[in-house]
Amino acid sequence: MLELQSEFTKKIIGVYGQRGVDFLTNLETIISSYEQRWHLKIHPPYELSYNYVAPATRNDGIEFAIKIGVPNPSFTMEYETLRMLASPSVVKVVDEDVANGVLLLEKIKPGNTLATVKDDVEATIIASKVMAKLWRPLPSHNHLNLPTMKDREKSLESIVQSNKNGCGPISKKILAEALTLFKQLHRTINQQYILHGDLHHYNILQSGHNEWKIIDPKGLVGDREYDVIQFLLNKLPYENKFSILDRRINILVEQLGLNKERILGWGFAHSVLSTCWSVEEGSLDENFFHSIGVFQQLIEKERG
Ligand SMILES: Nc1ncnc2c1ncn2[C@@H]1O[C@H](COP(=O)(O)OP(=O)(O)O)[C@@H](O)[C@H]1O
Ligand SMILES: [Mg+2]
């Protein structure tokens, strides 16, 4: 009998309902079928969130990581994005059965996440190095089906429309400001890029002594300055947010030649959006909420 991490089963059932229950019931059988198909021994899993991810060894001794999820469009999007952003600093797809929610990936070793790097300046410099190699300008003949920042804008717009008196602790005025800024930043994107869409410390893994590789893209089309916000908001202590964010942003601007004003604007607008998402899901994320005010202060400081 397969023993599963309880947080994982809760998340899967929370997101997918009955399909999630069926997936969990069949998981042991699914695992054995891919062991046979790809000649693998699949080992106990990593710490899980929304997918079953486990190290595996093929019968020729080569190690892999297998990712098994409930088949859905975002799983397919992850695969498409991994193909489009393929490079030595992005995890390699070795085989796939995406229609059934399965990816066979190169195993990244030692594979500890960027969250294990305690020095925040060092972690930010590492993140900027992988970001520099990641983004690709969107091809002009684009047949991609990736989500775009327009989808995020629409999400914020519908939140504003259905929360006329504000959203949780966020006032009506802040909501309106966030939407105006989102639209303005969106209109003024110079060059659209293929973005990761969920680029934080836990999706950057150490590979060898000095290299780091990116895993788990959601895929998004838009502004590079938006793709750094997940990183900025992650692993932020409740205290000292202002100085840590200020320092992280200055490093990213310097290392990547990004536009600081746009990062600050997206930071504010996205913090509002994320806080509203958390309110809609029934539990206010205090950290996202707190970040709204910090980005406002950073914007004021920048304007002088
Ligand atoms: N290719 C890989 N090599 C080594 N470890 C991996 C690999 N892919 C994922 N992991 C481990 O599995 C965890 C979950 O994988 P991830 O793709 O982020 O799943 P989810 O989509 O559920 O967030 C990661 O945090 C990492 O520890
Ligand atoms: Mg992940």
Name a few traits of the molecule:
single chain, alpha+beta, Phosphorylase Kinase, domain 1, Aminoglycoside 3'-phosphotransferase, Chain: A, domain 2, three-stranded antiparallel β-sheet, binds magnesium ion
Low-confidence sequence ranges = none
Annotated CATH topology of the largest domain: Aminoglycoside 3'-phosphotransferase, Chain: A, domain 2
The profile of the biggest β sheet is: 5 strands, antiparallel
Cross-sheet strand order for the largest sheet = 1-2-3-5-4
Strand content: 15-25%
- Quaternary: single chain
> Distance between the terminal alpha carbons, to the nearest Å?
62 Å
CATH architecture of the largest domain: Alpha-Beta Complex
What is the overall pLDDT average? 95
The CATH H-level homologous superfamily of the largest domain: Aminoglycoside phosphotransferase (APH), C-terminal lobe
- Structural class label: alpha+beta
Radius of gyration: 20 Å
Report the strand count. Answer: 11
Number of helices: 11
Percent helix: 40-55%
Can you characterise this structure?
- The protein folds into 2 domains: 6-107, Phosphorylase Kinase, domain 1; 112-303, Alpha-Beta Complex (Aminoglycoside 3'-phosphotransferase, Chain: A, domain 2).
- It has 11 helices and 11 strands.
- The chain has helices at 6-16, 18-37, 73-84, 120-134, 149-162, 172-187, 224-227, 229-233, 241-256, 260-280, 286-303; strands at residues 40-42, 52-58, 63-68, 93-97, 102-106, 110-113, 136-137, 193-195, 204-207, 211-214, 220-222.
- A 5-stranded antiparallel sheet has the order 1-2-3-5-4, sandwiched between helices.
- The radius of gyration is 20 Å and the shape is globular.
- It binds adenosine-5'-diphosphate and magnesium ion (MG).
